[in-house]
Design brief:
The protein contains 40 helices and no strands. By secondary structure, it is mostly helical. It holds the Pfam family Cnd3.
């Protein structure tokens, strides 16, 4: 019998050669794994001739393991990014996987010939012993001082843990504990590899849940974008983790944001598991993202995964997005039109579709028509003629007036979409134009008209009208008809015009919350009044009830008329001097309602008067003192309206023009500076926006005002006023770098402002909102840098 060659002798030659070969390419890893497995098997099965020891087999295996580990140790200190080291790690993982696979085949063959056995008898295999030895060695370096060693160890374990067979329970527990510790390693690269390793340990057991909790904490708080990305891709998807994954759609890193949409498209079998609110947020964040790659990922998710879950049916998809209350459904639909022309070609808007409109159907046809509004031929194919569309509007409006409160919302939405479609029609057909005009007039006269519909109706009326004067005349006729019968009733509710505009008196005389009416039906045949009267005290006599009903009727009619006037003025561009009929409307409706006791009527009256002033400069000069009075003495909502009107007038006609023409012109800047110290955040922000516009347009040049803006920008108390901060963040760089004169003005206030800011910083708590002095100085220097002048 020939003498068996001792394979131990050749280990120091064969194994290094295999490690050398596996660094060249991954294509030879399988071949080298087979070769190395044969060497391992020879070492395990070799018996010396004298059989000196019963542990000879284990000693031979240990010799193989020692030589293997000696060669593996050479790549552990190598820095991250070395391709050769990465290939060695992949080879080690492929070798362990191949060994486990072969041992599993051997066990299966033995099991076929054995009927009674216990699982534990077959756990101790060559591959399991080798894996245990390798992991025990790697765990010695998992807390090494060298960050490269820790990274390579975690990387190797991450590869090994997925292909392991059965290992010792104590070793497995130790492995879980050590890997969990590495999730908190100071090096981001090590944490990434620890995440990859721990992802295999997630589960329903206590430790698996603990790992998931750690992952959630890392998703929310880890400063490294790479670590958060690793968690996004490897965290287990379930109801608990889904909410935290969705939050990463607002991650500061665009790659992470894109990864969220890719993971959701892959992991979620049906997007209905997301709540409607979550769908709305996800689409809104993705489709409006500033990064084009994130937007493309969201569009891909929507146009492939989500539309497939809806059976490639756009109507079914829209039903799951709740288009009535959605702010992003239109953008989502347009993205599908661009990405899936095959689905667009399947759309069919026949007579049956128009006769049985739903909220989703009306939304779909409206967006599709706006998408193709440049293609007149396509619009002619889709849209019915003017007369038929008028019929559909009337039909669904009648349904809305007769429906219950729940159905009324959807029907109101359908009517609103039909109004938007009416804006796209060609009104060359005189018969259809007259039919539409008659219908719109009838609907405006109705007591059930919605505020949201008024604006659309007024816009359609303007398109139908011959010119602006004809448009104004027809709208005034409608308003006059609406107001018939209330002129005598509204006199008691007015203040006298000579009362020095004392608008602050009796501000809350009426007990009814008028502001809630602005968001609902302007009048419902006085049902609200009847309900309120039925719940009132039984001691109220009939005359008081009748008087209160009349007052309510006057308020509702005036509210409706003011809404119509506001919409009309917003669509008007003709000077009031060329349209004298507007003066009568102003004197009969707008001014009397400004004198009203009711806050909501005063607010709308000021708004309408402001729009009139934008169309007529002498009128603006004449009434500017009124706006200033309202700003000083009005309630907060009236102050906001007045300040907005004042700012618009200054921008429209010029700051110097208004100051020189107005009786109290020298008080304007003082009043605006008072607003900069107002407690109301909205007033505060509107004043900053107005002053910023004046300074950018070079109508105002005042270093004291500029200094006040700088102080506001760095004031910790304005940190919560996002509108103010956003405005000033844009204003200062543009103002300083747009001209040398502006930069010189900033340089003049540099030192006084910096000194004052430093004094304030000493007296405030050093919280997160307080800007450090060094950052303040750096920002001011950057604004005054002459080399950045455009």
């Amino acid at each position: 019998m020939p003498v068996q060659e001792n394979p131990i002798v050749t280990l120091s030659t064969i194994i290094p050669q295999i490690f050398q070969d596996c660094q060249k390419s991954t294509s030879n890893h399988r071949t080298n794994a087979i070769t190395l497995r044969k060497v391992q098997m020879k070492c395990s099965s070799y018996r010396s001739s004298n059989n000196e020891s019963s542990n000879n087999q284990l000693d031979n295996e240990q010799a193989f393991n020692t030589e293997f580990i000696r060669n593996l140790n050479k790549i552990l200190p190598v820095k991250k990014g070395q391709t050769n080291s990465e290939r060695v790690i992949k080879f080690v993982a492929s070798f362990v996987a191949f060994s486990c696979e072969k041992d599993k085949e051997l066990l299966n063959n033995q099991n076929d010939n054995t009927t009674d056995y216990e699982d534990d008898d077959y756990e101790d295999t060559l591959s399991s012993r080798f894996a245990e030895c390798l992991i025990q060695h790697l765990l010695k370096g998992i807390e090494a001082k060298d960050k490269n060693v820790r990274l390579r160890v975690c990387h190797l374990i991450a590869h090994l843990i997925g292909c392991l067979g059965s290992i010792d329970d104590d070793l497995y527990e130790r492995l879980k504990v050590e890997l969990t510790k590495r999730l908190l390693d100071k090096e981001a690269g090590v944490r990434v590899k620890a995440v990859l390793a721990c992802s295999k340990l997630q589960g329903d057991d206590d430790h698996g849940k603990y790992v998931i909790e750690k992952f959630i904490g890392m998703l929310r708080n880890d400063p490294s974008a790479e670590v958060r990305r690793a968690v996004i891709y490897n965290i287990e998807y379930n109801e608990e983790t889904l909410a935290y994954i969705l939050q990463r759609a607002r991650d500061v890193d665009p790659i992470n944001r894109r990864g969220v949409f890719m993971k959701i498209a892959e992991e979620i079998n049906d997007f209905r598991v997301l709540s409607i609110e979550d769908r709305e947020k996800l689409l809104s964040w993705g489709l409006t993202d500033r990064d084009s790659h994130v937007k493309k990922a969201c569009v891909r998710m929507l146009s492939t995964s989500w539309i497939q879950h809806a059976n490639d049916n756009l109507l079914e998809l829209l039903e799951r997005l709740d288009v009535v209350g959605s702010n992003i459904a239109q953008e989502a639909l347009i993205s599908i039109f661009n990405a899936r022309p095959d689905i667009v070609q399947m759309l069919n808007f026949d007579d049956i579709f128009w006769e049985n409109l739903t909220a989703e159907g009306s939304f779909l046809v409206r967006v599709f028509c706006e998408y193709n509004k440049e293609d007149e031929g396509k619009l002619d194919e889709i849209l019915p003629e003017v007369t038929r569309l008028a019929f559909y509007i009337q039909k669904y409006n009648n349904f809305m007036n007769q429906a219950s409160d729940e159905e009324q919302v959807n029907l109101a939405f359908i009517v609103g979409q039909l109004f938007l479609l009416a804006k796209l029609l060609d009104y060359g057909d005189e018969v259809g134009r007259r039919k539409m005009c008659s219908l719109l007039r009838e609907m405006l006269m109705s007591s059930n008209i919605l505020e949201s519909h008024i604006e659309s109706i007024v816009e359609i009326e303007k398109k139908i009208s011959i010119n602006e004067r004809d448009f104004t005349r027809s709208m005034i006729e409608i308003i006059t008809d609406i107001r018939e019968g209330i002129e005598d009733d509204e006199a008691p509710s007015r203040l006298t015009y000579q009362d020095d505009y004392d608008l602050s008196a009796n501000m809350s005389r009426l007990s009814i919350n008028i502001s809630s009416m602005k968001m609902s039906v302007l009048s419902t045949d006085l049902k609200q009044t009847e309900r309120r009267v039925s719940n009132s005290s039984t001691s109220m006599d009939d005359s008081n009830i009748l008087q209160e009903d009349n007052e309510m009727k006057v308020i509702l009619v005036n509210l409706k008329c003011l809404h119509i006037i506001r919409c009309m003025l917003e669509k008007n561009s003709e000077s009031l001097r060329d349209n004298p009929s507007m003066y009568g409307l102003m004197n009969e409706i707008i001014i009397p309602n400004i004198q009203s006791h009711e806050p909501v009527l005063r607010e709308l009256g000021i708004h309408c008067l402001g729009l009139c002033c934008i169309l007529d400069q002498p009128l603006a000069v004449e009434n500017y003192n009124l706006f200033m009075h309202c700003l000083r003495h009005g309630h907060p909502e009236l102050q906001i309206k007045s300040l907005m009107v004042m700012s618009d007038i200054l921008i429209a006609y010029g700051y110097s023009t208004i100051v020189s023409s107005t009786r109290q012109g020298n008080e304007i800047m003082g009043l605006l500076q008072e607003c900069l110290k107002n407690e109301n955040e909205q007033v505060h922000a509107i004043a900053v926006v107005g002053i910023s516009k004046l300074m950018l347009s070079k109508m105002l040049r005042d270093k004291y005002v500029l200094k006040e803006l700088v102080l506001l920008y760095f004031d910790s108390d304005t940190a919560s006023n996002l509108r103010l901060r956003q405005c000033l963040s844009y204003f200062f760089p543009v103002f300083c770098h747009s001209s040398f004169e502006n930069q010189t003005l900033m340089q003049e206030i540099f030192l006084p402002t910096l000194i004052e800011l430093l004094k304030k910083y000493k007296n405030v708590d050093k919280n997160d909102n307080a800007v450090p002095p060094l950052q303040i100085a750096q920002q001011l220097v950057d604004w005054t840098d002459p080399f950045k002048v455009v």
